Structures are given as structure tokens and as C-alpha cells.
Amino acid sequence: MRPRVASATVTTTVPMLDLTADPVELTAALVDVPSVSGAEATLSDALERALREQAPHLEVIRSGAAVLARTRLGRDQRVLLAGHIDTVPIADNLPSHREGDLLYGCGTSDMKAGDAVFAHLAATLTEPRHDLTLVFYDCEEIEADRNGLGRIERELPEWLRADLAILGEPTGGTVEAGCQGTLRVEIRTHGRRAHSARSWLGDNAVHHAAEVLARLGAYSPRDVDIDGCVYREGLQAVRIAGGVAGNVVPDECVVTVNFRFAPDRSADAALAHVRDVFAGYDLTVTDLSPGALPGLTAPSAQQFLAATGTTAHAKYGWTDVSRFAALGIPAINYGPGDPNLAHTREEHVDTRVINRSTDVLRRFLG
Amino acid sequence: MRPRVASATVTTTVPMLDLTADPVELTAALVDVPSVSGAEATLSDALERALREQAPHLEVIRSGAAVLARTRLGRDQRVLLAGHIDTVPIADNLPSHREGDLLYGCGTSDMKAGDAVFAHLAATLTEPRHDLTLVFYDCEEIEADRNGLGRIERELPEWLRADLAILGEPTGGTVEAGCQGTLRVEIRTHGRRAHSARSWLGDNAVHHAAEVLARLGAYSPRDVDIDGCVYREGLQAVRIAGGVAGNVVPDECVVTVNFRFAPDRSADAALAHVRDVFAGYDLTVTDLSPGALPGLTAPSAQQFLAATGTTAHAKYGWTDVSRFAALGIPAINYGPGDPNLAHTREEHVDTRVINRSTDVLRRFLG
């Protein structure tokens, strides 16, 4: 006879989120639901339930651990507000805590403060000036092929249609437009191994790297002005490695070069340029992501800039705005977090910037 | 009540070695007693017992795992025959086996064939022309500060007095005189770390290494003739390393340079030269061993060369002959092993070279 198994009800606790609360409080609530990349489901469930219960004017759907919502008011323009809900691994910096105007904790700056502002406005602006789409997505902090926004682009492309995309990545409350592209290549020099006591029998691959480094040192990067944003390029060795043993002439040396390029170059053009710079060398591409044009001449972008009362600057780091730019959508980075604190143990956000960003976006959307 | 413990006699088996046997057979017997550095005691015991029992004309002592023996015949000249008895770790290449004229196994070339020739001659030449000193020492293949010859130099200096030292390191049966010195330095370039997307805020230490590599590439090494032996110098990068992450401008790069220098330079002079070559750079010495002058003008060395019927060549690798040279003793590398097979899995020795070396040394010493 089989033993009797008591029937049990598994209760999954979905934290309650109050989207109508002060966005600073909402930021803290989001931060206090851990959501390291790949383990966002509890936070996704909480966001989905809160949107369904507290924002009945929105159409809400799920895509894996991503939560999407939108109005269908027939407005002339549609603004998409996007934020990733995952974080880097927790560094003993949860739960969140306040110190004066600062809110500390993993994900405060990168980028749950941005998520909180977007969720609060979407829930409370029941009659926005523009149609709104909310995209809260997963797995931004890890390998590009797991990125939730990429999955949405493949599976739900109609959900990404918009006239302007605002990505809540940390910018310190300033407007950073477009983004630079990034290319990583390995340049290999070759030689012939030999005992260093008989070095004339060998051919030193590390010595051959002198010319590669000299070309890097002599390189003059461009400054490119697009829509009033200046993109400063850079071509840098980020790694060099060669050597077999302390008594061996090395037969290989690898210089890893990172090219950050202005968005007036396509990915292909950037690669062609780097191939030109290192003509004659063995070159392997290990990473290539296109940049994003700022698209500030679009009417929706102009209206947003007017609401902020400031001008836009170029975004230097690569962000998911490039996915929107590739779809032809003007895309802007605008979030209350501090980019210099992202991924740090002491990560925090200035609550005054959260409130200011909320006011700016409400003026633009309300 | 405590349990009864059966009394047991621990029998350590000391292998029997026949020093009067054919030196090829003796080589195989030595190889078949494993003696990886630090674990030479069984072989030391066997050598000590064999010398005491089969060579009563020799004074025999122990120094740790080293075994020393000498005649005291009052001859005009004393010849010292030195060989390390340790090997690198066994690479599934024991016990020894014969394939035609070749004897395979760990330590065959480096350098139990040399040890066998020396032990056989010392045991069978009861009335040598020159007084003889045998030094079989431990721990040559590992850190210099554990080298048995260094310990003997400190604790038993009178045992190293001689007019000529012959070291049985593998030379393929040719005479290799003196040895080159070796100097290893780390050259550091410095910079300032920054995100590679904002590279103008940083200063790339890897780019600064271009000049270090350029100086290496432009360096013209000397060929130095001493006593008819040509020492070819070499200045080589043996390692280069720099890099923090794929998106960071590196703030440090380290080039490890190995200078192999002719023995007309002292260690200090070699270092001063390398400091000159890399003037202006941060330089750290990690290894410095002086070379050894060939000393071929000494009468004992001339007699040995006459017995071989050949001329001497420069030794390029560093060996323990430099310890004898530092004591003012002409020192020669002469062993039947093949230097190119040392430390290899397929290590072997040509038995014909063992026999030829035995004949040459018997002619010189007999």
C-alpha cells in the first residue's frame, strides 16, 4: 500500500506594490523584491498584478518574465517607456535603506528608480496626452542573447511600435540621446617558439605587437556632432596577453581592442575602419553592437526635450536604445539613477532626482 | 586494557647497484630508482652503499640526500665530477626500456647517464691520474634555494676544491664550456583606469608598452668570443600582461623580459645594461644568476679537451657550472644526454654516446 500523501496548497507570496504611492516609496518596494537576472519572476508577478488591479485603463500582457502594458486611446503619438527589472548579483546590499535624501540598495540606480517612475506615471495618468506603452523586461545585465527586449522584438514586434522610446537607464536625470556602438576584436601576432637561451632560433610574437600598440597610440579618434550631441570615439587596447614560460620565446600575442564608435557609422563600417587601422594583422571579431542615432529631430523627441527644459548629450555607453534605433524609433536614455554607481556595492539613488524626473515626465505625458 | 600491537620490522629495500657493470646497464639501474626532486633518498642510499662496498679506495660521506666521495692520493690536480640525481616528475615513462641503441625513461638524459659514467669510472679507476671528487647532489630541478650543490657549498666548502669541474648535464657528448647568465625583470607601464566608452578620461598603460616592445625589437644582441667559445646574447619579452575587463582602459601593463648574457658581464653589469636599455621605465628584478666563464686556458681544461679530441662550444642555458666558476674553478658541461630531450615524456639517451663519453673520461682520468 502506498503511503498517504497529505494534499498541500502551495502558496506563492506575491508582494503587494502600490503604484499610486510616491515613486520613491515605490522604488524602495521594487528594490526589496530581489530580481537578479534570470530570477525576476516574483517581481514580474507583482508588477503584473499591480498593473492589472490598479491600472484598468491599460492592456497588460506577459512575455516570460517581462510585463508589458499599453493604452489604446488613439492618440497621434505613442511613447514607449522601457526599463529592465533585473539587477546584477546582490552584494550584501539588500534590503534598501534611506540615508537622508539617498536610497541605498542593489538596483536602486540601475534601474528600479526608472521603473518606479514609469510604473507610477502609467498607473496614475489615466488620460495621457500620448498613447503609452510600458515594457518591463528581464535579463538585461547578462548575455545579449538572453535579453528580454530582444525576445519581445522577435515574438511581439507590434508591442515595440512607437514614435519615441525612453529607456530608464541611469543618466542622473539628464537626457542622453542615442548611444555609441561597441566593437571588440582580438589582434594576434605570431612567431616561433624557442628556448630564450637560444632566442635566435625563435621569433618573438610579443615584440611584433609593438607595431599594433604603436598604431593604437597614434590613433586620433573623431568627435562627431549629431543633432547637437557630440559623440567622442575611442580605440583602446583593453587587454594584452602573451607568454609561455619564463624561459621561452613566445609564439603568440593577443591584443584585445575595443572600438567605441559614433552612431553615424554602421556596425559594418566600424569594423571596416578597424580592419583598415590594423591592416596586415590577423583580426578576430568577438563583439559587435551597433550604436543608435539620437533621432532628436523627431517631433516627439523635441516635445520631450522642451518638457525637460534642457538639451541632450550624447550617451557614451552602449544601451538597449540601439534596439529601438534599429527599428527607426527615436530613442533616449533618461533615468534618475547615477550611472557611476551602477553595479557597485554602495549603489544608491538620489530621491530628489526621482521626484524631479517624475515631474518632467508627467509634464511631457500628462 | 590497550590492544596488543604486533611488533613489526620495517624493511627498507635499498636497491643493489653494480658500479663495475657496463655504464649503460648502470644508467638503466639508476633510472629505475625513481628520484623526483625532494624524494631522492632511496637512490642516495643505494649510491652510498654501492660506493662504500665497491669502491673502498674512496672516502664517502652524505650531506642530506647528496652523496660525496673522493680519493686522497696526493696528485697534483683534482678533478671534480658532479651530477644531480633528481629528476623532473615522472611522465608515465618509467621503468626504463631499450629500443635498439636508445634507452628510454625519466632521467635518462637529464642526467643519470652522466651520473652512471662518473660513478662507474670513480669505482673502477682505483689509481686515477688526478685526484677525483664525486658529487651526486639533490634538488637541481627545483627552486634554486633548495639546490643540494648550494647546500654543500655552504656546509662542506672543502669538498668543492678542485682544479677542474665537469658537470654531467646533457650536452650530447660534446664539450660545452662555462654558461650564460640569466636575468629576468618586469617592466611596468602605468596609466589611469577609465570606462572604455569614456576613454579620454583614462590613460592606457598597454599603449605605453609600445615603446618597451619597440626597444626590444630594435635591440642588437652581442656575440662574444671567450676562449674560442662564442656566447650569443639575447634580450626577449617572455610574457606580457595587461587588462582589467573588456570595457576598461587598463592602468597597468607588465612586460617580463629575459636577458641571457655572456659570462664576460657580471650579474651587476648585466643588470646595469638592462636598466640602460629601459631607461625611464619602472623595472623590478625577479631573477638574476651570473654566468660562468669557460676557463679553458687552465691546464686541466686543456688536458681534458685534448682527451676528447674536440673543441669546446659555449653553453647557452644556465647550469650549476656557474657555482664552480664563482669559486674560481674552470667548469665544463659534459654529459651523454641529449639536452633537447630533457624534461620530455619521450626522454631517452643514445647508449653509444654513453660508451663514448666513458671512453673519453677514462682516457683523461685513467
A few lines on this structure:
With 366 residues, chain A is of the alpha+beta class.
CATH homology-level superfamily of the largest domain in chain A: Zn peptidases
Give the SSE order of chain A as H and E letters: HHEEEEEHEHEEEEHEEEEEHEHEHEEH
Widest sheet, order of strands of chain A: 1-2-6-3-7-18-8-17
Oligomer: homodimer
State the distance separating the first and last CA atoms of chain A. Answer: 67 Å
Major β-sheet annotation of chain A: 8 strands, mixed
Q: Which architecture of the largest domain in chain A per CATH? A: 3-Layer(aba) Sandwich
Q: Estimate what percentage of residues of chain A fall within beta strands.
A: 25-35%
Q: Using the CA coordinates, give the radius of gyration of chain A.
A: 24 Å
Mean pLDDT, all residues of chain A: 93
Question: Describe it for me?
Answer:
The structure is a homodimer of 366-residue chains. Chain A has 366 residues and is of the alpha+beta class. Chain A has two domains: 7-178 and 292-365, Aminopeptidase (3-Layer(aba) Sandwich), CATH 3.40.630; 181-289, Alpha-Beta Plaits, CATH 3.30.70.360. Chain A is 28% helix and 26% strand. The first copy, chain A, has nine helices and 19 strands. In chain A, the strands form five sheets. In chain A, strands 1-2-6-3-7-18-8-17 form an eight-stranded mixed β-sheet, sandwiched between helices. Chain A has a four-stranded antiparallel β-sheet with strand order 13-15-9-16. In chain A, strands 4-5-19 form a three-stranded antiparallel β-sheet. In chain A, helix 1 (23-31) packs across helix 3, helix 3 (108-124) packs parallel to helix 9 (351-365) and helix 7 packs across helix 9. The longest helix of chain A has 17 residues, at 108-124. The radius of gyration of chain A is 24 Å and the shape is elongated. The termini of chain A are far apart. Strand 13 (234-243) of chain A pairs antiparallel with strand 13 of chain B, so a sheet runs across the interface. Chains A, B: This is Succinyl-diaminopimelate desuccinylase. Chains A, B: One of its GO terms (molecular function) is succinyl-diaminopimelate desuccinylase activity. Chains A, B: Residues 181-278 form the Peptidase M20 dimerisation domain.
